[in-house]
Design brief:
24 residues; 1 helix; 83% helix
């Protein structure tokens, strides 16, 4: 689980970044 959590966080961060760029 510990290894899975960081990976999920990275994916979520990438999605948020993409959304933030699209909003601009």
């Amino acid at each position: 689980i510990q290894l899975g959590q960081p990976a999920t966080v990275k994916v979520a961060a990438n999605l948020i970044r993409l959304l933030s760029y699209q909003n601009k």
